Amino acid sequence: MFETLHRRVSKKGMPPGTVTYVGRKQSRAVSLDAIHIVPEGGPEGVRRETPTTPETCAAFAKMPGLTWINVDGLHDPDCIVRLGEVFHLHPLVLEDIVHTGQRPKLDELDDALFVVLKMLRYNEAARTIEDEQVCFVLKENLLLTFQEKAQGDVFGEIRKRLLAGAGRLCKGGADYLMYALIDAIVDNYFVVLERMGEDIEEVEEKLLAAPTPEELETIHALRREALFLRKFVWPLREVLARLEKGGYPVVADSTIVYLRDLYDHTIQVMDTVETFRDMLSGMLELYLSNVSLKLNETMKVLTMISTVFIPLSFMASLYGMNFKHMPELETEYGYYVVLGVMACTVTGMVVYFRRKGWLGGKG
Amino acid sequence: MFETLHRRVSKKGMPPGTVTYVGRKQSRAVSLDAIHIVPEGGPEGVRRETPTTPETCAAFAKMPGLTWINVDGLHDPDCIVRLGEVFHLHPLVLEDIVHTGQRPKLDELDDALFVVLKMLRYNEAARTIEDEQVCFVLKENLLLTFQEKAQGDVFGEIRKRLLAGAGRLCKGGADYLMYALIDAIVDNYFVVLERMGEDIEEVEEKLLAAPTPEELETIHALRREALFLRKFVWPLREVLARLEKGGYPVVADSTIVYLRDLYDHTIQVMDTVETFRDMLSGMLELYLSNVSLKLNETMKVLTMISTVFIPLSFMASLYGMNFKHMPELETEYGYYVVLGVMACTVTGMVVYFRRKGWLGGKG
Amino acid sequence: MFETLHRRVSKKGMPPGTVTYVGRKQSRAVSLDAIHIVPEGGPEGVRRETPTTPETCAAFAKMPGLTWINVDGLHDPDCIVRLGEVFHLHPLVLEDIVHTGQRPKLDELDDALFVVLKMLRYNEAARTIEDEQVCFVLKENLLLTFQEKAQGDVFGEIRKRLLAGAGRLCKGGADYLMYALIDAIVDNYFVVLERMGEDIEEVEEKLLAAPTPEELETIHALRREALFLRKFVWPLREVLARLEKGGYPVVADSTIVYLRDLYDHTIQVMDTVETFRDMLSGMLELYLSNVSLKLNETMKVLTMISTVFIPLSFMASLYGMNFKHMPELETEYGYYVVLGVMACTVTGMVVYFRRKGWLGGKG
Amino acid sequence: MFETLHRRVSKKGMPPGTVTYVGRKQSRAVSLDAIHIVPEGGPEGVRRETPTTPETCAAFAKMPGLTWINVDGLHDPDCIVRLGEVFHLHPLVLEDIVHTGQRPKLDELDDALFVVLKMLRYNEAARTIEDEQVCFVLKENLLLTFQEKAQGDVFGEIRKRLLAGAGRLCKGGADYLMYALIDAIVDNYFVVLERMGEDIEEVEEKLLAAPTPEELETIHALRREALFLRKFVWPLREVLARLEKGGYPVVADSTIVYLRDLYDHTIQVMDTVETFRDMLSGMLELYLSNVSLKLNETMKVLTMISTVFIPLSFMASLYGMNFKHMPELETEYGYYVVLGVMACTVTGMVVYFRRKGWLGGKG
Amino acid sequence: MFETLHRRVSKKGMPPGTVTYVGRKQSRAVSLDAIHIVPEGGPEGVRRETPTTPETCAAFAKMPGLTWINVDGLHDPDCIVRLGEVFHLHPLVLEDIVHTGQRPKLDELDDALFVVLKMLRYNEAARTIEDEQVCFVLKENLLLTFQEKAQGDVFGEIRKRLLAGAGRLCKGGADYLMYALIDAIVDNYFVVLERMGEDIEEVEEKLLAAPTPEELETIHALRREALFLRKFVWPLREVLARLEKGGYPVVADSTIVYLRDLYDHTIQVMDTVETFRDMLSGMLELYLSNVSLKLNETMKVLTMISTVFIPLSFMASLYGMNFKHMPELETEYGYYVVLGVMACTVTGMVVYFRRKGWLGGKG
Fold it and tell me: CA-to-CA distance for B220 and B111, rounded, in angstroms?
């Protein structure tokens, strides 16, 4: 959870604009992936290549039509710096791209928009949520995306549609493409939320049956996860609110209506996260109430047993004493009298408990 | 509760504007219901038909006068798409209509208003609140409504008044009709709130009598329901605040005063939901306090019994030992002395408890 | 508490503007009370009558000078409708007047202001707070007031001052009169708050002495009452904030300074209600802490008694066994040795408890 | 705490602008204190008198130069009314001055500013915070101050500096003088906060040692006090925020920079009060956690003792039975076998407890 | 923690603008450190000196180029006053510089900006966070910094880069230098947060293993620290938000983009502090839940043992009575019957506990 802090600290003392990768070590090389589309060109108008140098990318971008360059892996600062030179990016933007501990944010540059987002993934094995930073640089007819990790993303469906060469995706410009990619990321949030929701419902069912310490730890873990999600979702909402308001030259008015739709989705993500938090708090309270209640019932059982038997035991002990002169012991019906007194005591206790509502599950 | 998330996830990867029904399976066919009114035409000016195709609806809408077309059931995407073509609706609007996991919202379109609301129903059998999505498309002289489920709605009274052909409803235009329908929906919220309020009062009465685990679960369930309601009511308030502010060409100024009244009602709904939440929190605290208190009293009883009898039992055991040489056992009044000591011990204990305020219910 | 919801529900399905009384049944007839004042006219310029029909009232209002018409009881819709016609009131206003479940609010009408407030009364017998709706319609030189219940109000002092025919009240116009009446209502809030404050202080004193379940229920009841008060006070503040900002043609600038003073009072009411809520929460926590602490002390007593006597009893039982061959029993000083061992055990225990801080009230 | 409410209620029914003293009875007479300064006049330019009538004060104020008139005690309404006439104060202002239950506030009058503040004093004897109302009326070259109580204030240092006739205080005008006085009041808040901070730290130290009921009551009392402080500090911040924004003709621009400094101080007061509240809540939670933990430990001791000895006692009782035919009793080594079984039981228990982590303070 | 209050109180009664040092005694003398840079001058353009008097500093500042004068230690008011005279600083600014109990703030002066910040340091020995006040006075080509303590700061890296005479730092002007220094301070916050995060994770791990009172105290201490941090971080965010908005003549537009980056960092600091607070609250709740749960389990063990053995012991005591006439004692198989009854009782109890789910760790 505090990895972000660690990354930030490891950069301390460097001048601003220093492009140093602070994330986890990566084994795979940085890979570039370029898609170029001639609008209205149909499937033939689409070309996909995997350039080996940033400079090849630039040649791509100079051709008329829409270019999308995706960078997988940020662990080669040199490559990022050269990309920055080729596409005229501010050093601070490059620094933000490689620094994977950013909050989601939107920066307006001279002729471009710079967006930082988090892609979420539910790790089924560890039952935790993993995040990966994705940066977007949106220019006229050019979209650059930078992914933290080289393995896999949520853009597969969009690539397929792009390569098919038809649909609004091929006609809509770089801004519409960026919208579609962000939409894919936000859609994936719902997958994560659904998995988390399943965990919450599972815990809740167990909780109503019988509270055990495992449930307590699961609730605690889920709360931490909700806290973690919240940190990403609140600034995301801000980013989309600003995008949806428009006024950026690189975002066409026709895309705004789609961005508004996307904004509605992030609101829904946020609502769900907040509802999760409220539900988890409610469940913790339920858990604690249940424990208190069970404790009370346990104690009632103990008290009833003790209250009934302790006086009886005392009476029995009394007549177990070995005094020479204990006239009761000599009488013929002494034993039966004591048994009778004991029976009366028990009856009295039971009546008392019934009046107090302790018997019959009333209270 | 997480059905909404599930629906959203099932659509993942589709291009925006895809009209796919994500709700529950429906057995009944989609039914269309059209009412056409010539203002000032009296009962004769009203015509009601159940067109079989979207195209028939269009013919309806072309006649001078007010047309209300109600669609029951959204599980036939083809029908919705054709309606969209006939009435020139944006693909994103159609997508929102069939996607039944929307938050209440208001979108301004070119020549129309698009409103998404939730109709609530209290399921008496399951003692839960059920929601159903209702969408409104308001155009000049035309109102389209889309209901998620084919069975029943809360508009019966309004249809009756419409068919009677008189009153403000027939003269007021499509905007007034929309107001009247939303008013019917919000009025039904009060029915749901009243039922929920009854449940809350019932639990509270039981709680003051004697807290049992059932009450705890009921409080928990009611809190979840309040959370659920809140999710619908907050955005509803926003929708009505924006409607009431006016400035939409399809909403006449004369309708604004009615919308303000409606806005007051939603504020009241919201207030009530918040009050419910506060009351339920208060009740949970009361419950826990009660449990703690009862535990304390139980323990006091146990402690008093134990504290009185354990020393007595010890004394009795002491003289139950079988040592050969125990001079006390031989004395003539040893037994009575022991009984006296026991009596003194008990008296001392009772005095001590009285001083501590444990007897007589003082503390 | 949920009476308001009930009233709202009982009106479901009626067209807006329907004037139906939804409050409690009233035995007394609706009574009208009209006071007419010629400013600067002295005591002779004041006339008070109790007109029998709404139309008589209209005649009153047409005379030059200030007219105040007070309606006691709303259970005669016919009378209210006729009043509405005579004084040109919008149907929605009439509906709001008879619908006694309104939130306090301020509506600006064409040539009038419409204010809904709640009058509070502390019911000494039931120790609860009762509310009564009061509506004001303020026009040029005319003030209409509508009270829910026919029995009594807080305006006695003002009537007296009016009939005396002197003072600012007779010169100040209808807006100043409305201010004076609202001021009387808000002043009465302080009476209610003072009574509630006394209850809170009483409970707190008892709580510090010894917490009993009665205090718990009283705190719970007081919290509900504070919640109830809050529902009225927050919108009241809003109403007065808007009034104080001025800009209404029927409110003279010279009255604004008085309204600002009144606004200060409502802020103080609100502050007090919030302070009450904070105090009650604090008291509940104190109560729970006290109960926990007492439980802990009870348990310490039990543990000490048990820990001391259980081993002793065991030893006594041990030598109470009837084995043939128990050499200790035969020795001459066995009994005294056992007594000595017991004494040592007790001493050891006491030393242990003293070290743990359980004796001497240290912890 | 509710004295304020009581005062407000005692005025109920009086027309606005009635000047009635509602505070505590005062034995000392109202005293007037006037200081007149000729700027740049040095020590000779300063004159101090104690006028006996309000009219004498007016003569003072007419002289060129700065006049500060301080009124100690408000229990003589006649004197206040005459002062009001002499200095042309609005009746509502006079009412506010004598009504000592005001919230801190700032009112802009025609040619004056009216400020109500609270002076705080830490009562060392009762360990409570006492408040006293101070009102300022600031006019061109004239400052009137009204203090609730006749005994003592926090202005001593300022009087001394004034009478010395030098420094910015004598050159700065009435607005600078008001700033200096308010600064003295706010500075005194820090004294009160420091004393309260000491109390908090003292309680916290005790709490970490061993929680006793006294600490609980002290925390409760401190929380009430923080609540009490907060009621004065929040509106104070508002008053100073408005003053600091300037735009009042009677406040010179050169004074604004000082007021900004003062505003910073009130923010700091507010921060400290909020920090106190957070700390006290944290301490209550710590207290409760500590009590729970101690309870748990107490119960573990009891459970260990009981679990070890109850089965042993049972065994001993078993062979204490007086049945004729109990073959074990007859055997020669029966006693030793039983002792062995007992030893094994104890060993087993200890092993079990060690595994559960109950021994050795591990959990 | 309340040192700040103490400092404030020690200044009570002094006229505003009095320059009195209120911090801790310092043994080292105040030291001045001046760096002068001729932009584009390379390493030769940089001069570093340690002037002995404020007047020497002034000579420095008069040379063309950028001058940074750093003052270490504030305990020599005379030196500060002379510096103020030399650089034309307002007395209130000087007072704020030496008064080390300020909140972070930004004041706009005539031709300068005045910024107060807190430098944080994690004291590894005491495991606490220490703060030190740093003030910045930014003028055209001149930056003055004032540090509270003479020993060490976080600016080492920047000095090194400055003296190297290259990079943006030497070309960027006084505003860029101030940005770089504040950036160094904020970067150090992340170091402090990382250390604190490690402490939190350490406590959490221990907590999940077994809760002990030490963890409780650590959580309490960490919460206090988070409260302490928050007091500095919230106003810091405000300061940077205002700086980033620009509009100050002494801050160049080219620096704004860097300040925005810095603002993002402070938001992240704030987010982290809030996350820490949420996590610590969650941990406290987990702790309490764990304690409750353990208590419940302890009680179940006790109850099971007691419930099984108390009736058995009673039966044994019963037949340990010494009555002459107890027919059961005489029967040959009485002992075995009693043993059988006891076995049945135990079996019944075990079955009952199993049904209640108390055995087998189910609940």
Answer: 46
Identify the three-state secondary structure at position C317.
helix
> How many Å apart are CA E200 and CA A5, to the nearest integer?
13
Q: What percent of chain D has pLDDT over 70?
A: 95
Residues 6+ positions from D341 with CB-CB distance below 8 Å: D315
pTM here is 0.81
- Sign of the alpha-carbon dihedral angle for D260, D262, D268, D270: negative
Give the residues of chain B that fall short of pLDDT 70. Answer: 1-4, 24-28, 150-151, 359-363
Q: Report chain D residues whose CB lies below 8 A from the CB of C198.
A: 2
Pairing of strands C66-72, C142-147: parallel
Q: How far is B136 from chain C (nearest CA, A)?
A: 20
d(CA E162, CA E178): 13
The DSSP line for D257-288 is HHHHHHHHHHHHHHHHHHHHHHHHHHHHHHHH
Residues of E within 8 A of D292 (CB-CB) are: 288, 291-292, 295
Closest among E151, D322, C10 to A335, alpha carbons compared: D322
The rounded distance, in Å, linking the Cα atoms of A47 and A67 is 10
| Per-residue model confidence (pLDDT) at position A98 | 87
Confidence of residue A26 (pLDDT cuts 50, 70, 90): low
Tell me the C-alpha distance between C216 and E305, whole Å.
35
Are C199 and C218 spatial neighbours (Cβ–Cβ below 8 Å)? yes
Distance from CA of A348 to the nearest CA of E (A): 18
Write the single-letter amino acid at D250. V
Interchain CB distance below 8 Å, E316 and D311: no
Polymer length in residues for chain E:
363
Please report the sign of the dihedral spanned by the C-alpha atoms of residue B184, residue B189, residue B195, residue B198: negative
CA distance B292 to B308: 24
Q: What is the ipTM of this complex?
A: 0.76
Cβ–Cβ gap A363/B211 under 8 Å: yes
Question: CA–CA separation, A223 vs E292, rounded Å?
Answer: 20
Pairwise CA distance, residues A94 & A17, whole Å = 7
How is residue A209 written in tokens? 């049956």
Burial class (CB in 10 A: 0-12, 13-18, 19+), B253: exposed
User: What does the block give as tokens for D206?
Assistant: 């005790």
Question: How many angstroms separate the CA atoms of E261 and A92, rounded?
Answer: 8
Which of D107, D320, D333 has the CB atom closest to C322's CB atom? Answer: D320
For residue B37, list its beta bridge partners.
B46, B66
The closest of A300, A305, D288 to E292, measured between CA atoms, is: D288
What type of residue sits at position B272?
Answer: T
Q: Considering just the CA atoms, what is the radius of gyration of chain B in Å?
A: 35
Q: Are D258 and D168 in contact (CB under 8 A)?
A: no
What's the CA gap between B165 and B192, in Å, rounded? Answer: 30
d(CA E54, CA A190): 63
C202 contact residues in D (CB cutoff 8 A):
none
CB contact under 8 A, D264 and E105: yes
Q: Are D61 and D67 in contact (CB under 8 A)?
A: yes
Q: Measured between alpha carbons, how far is C147 from C136 in angstroms, rounded to an integer?
A: 9
CA pair distance B295, B293, nearest whole angstrom: 5
b (16+ CB within 10 A) / e for A152-167: ebbbeebbebbeebee
Checking DSSP bridges between strand A31-37 and strand A46-49, what pairing results, if any? antiparallel
Say if the Cβ atoms of D323 and E319 lie within 8 Å: yes
Using an 8 Å CB-CB cutoff, list chain D residues near C311: 305, 309
Mark yes or no for CB contact B338/A321 under 8 Å: yes
User: What is the pLDDT confidence band of residue A128, given thresholds at 50, 70 and 90?
Assistant: confident
C-alpha distance from residue E153 to each of A6, A42, E119 (Å): 21, 63, 8
pLDDT tens sequence across C282-297: 888 888 888 888 888 8
